[in-house]
């Protein structure tokens, strides 16, 4: 090919490029710095989603939801025989058991702490504040002690998922131990914010049991360590300012990439790092929220940057199409899900059996 032809060819290409550039605003030549950064992050770090047509990962190969509704989720579970489900829960699954949540207007715990004269409501669960003044926490603990509360339909629904071999893991922020009372085996449970079950001396780390702590707390005393005679014994609840249990870190890394379905129940999804677990499932994994209100949604900045962060209930969005919000009471939502899956009788039988055995235990304790 001689020089002239080459030049002609180049001109043709240039003309074509000019035309394309003017007709297609999304042309690569027109990519803004932001778009380039977004693509870079998507490819290198897999941090953000590319628009549906540009995805090259597993999302094009695997089926997601046909209907963005509870029925769509039901269909999906029925069609995936070995569906690996992760459940994530917050205080909302225990409110029907009589335990208040934290942030609900007027009924939430953080709206009822005036009598403690705290600098701010969350201080009651802050390590720094506790070290200086443990009294408010132990006064509150008397009300919160896991005593006499019974698991709810939501707890038994989670147990039923386990019995059916569908539960990969249950991640809870709750410290009320109701998942254990409902009979969920400890290997299926991650108590992300710790538990009242055990305690430790803050000075010498000597371990203590719930019955020991309970006795002191009910007496109105601040539990003091009997080993070192100095430290305060704190239940193993994770306070703000403390690390989450190692089990949380290890299992979250392993589980979330494996999940086929994520069900989030009764949480405001505002406390980290728990809240961002929702972002750790694969981009193809459907996510069902059962809650009084929509929570954990993608914010505007993340949407603008195309970050894979937060739930996207808007199906029209480039990242939508897999998130479902069922708004209402957790127990009603779980019951409905069980009914639609054809598990109504099994759930009923399980609850009846368990409640009778809890009653029998109560009687033998008295
Ligand atoms: P929150 O009180 O922040 O949120 C509870 C959510 O559940 C809210 O969105 C309620 O609307 C909803 N809800 C309440 N009752 C419900 C019901 N019966 N049915 C459906 N939805 C219901 O509680 P968490 O998200 O669990 O941490 O709070 C997270 C963490 O904040 C807690 O673990 C605790 C707290 O500070 C520590 O103490 C470290």
TrEMBL record:
Recorded catalytic activity of this chain's protein: N(6)-hexadecanoyl-L-lysyl-[protein] + NAD(+) + H2O = 2''-O-hexadecanoyl-ADP-D-ribose + nicotinamide + L-lysyl-[protein]; N(6)-acetyl-L-lysyl-[protein] + NAD(+) + H2O = 2''-O-acetyl-ADP-D-ribose + nicotinamide + L-lysyl-[protein]; N(6)-tetradecanoyl-L-lysyl-[protein] + NAD(+) + H2O = 2''-O-tetradecanoyl-ADP-D-ribose + nicotinamide + L-lysyl-[protein]
GO CC list: nucleus
Basic and acidic residues: bias regions: 1-19
Active-site residues (renumbered): 193 (proton acceptor)
Region (Disordered): 1-32
Amino-acid positions noted as binding Zn(2+) in the UniProt annotation, renumbered to this chain: 201, 204, 225, 228
EC number assigned by the record: 2.3.1.286
Cofactor entry: Zn(2+)
GO-annotated molecular function: histone deacetylase activity, NAD-dependent; metal ion binding; NAD+ binding
Cross-referenced PANTHER family: NAD-DEPENDENT PROTEIN DEACETYLASE SIRTUIN-2, NAD-DEPENDENT PROTEIN DEACYLASE SIRTUIN-5, MITOCHONDRIAL-RELATED
Name listed for the protein in its UniProt record: NAD-dependent protein deacetylase
Species name: Temnothorax curvispinosus
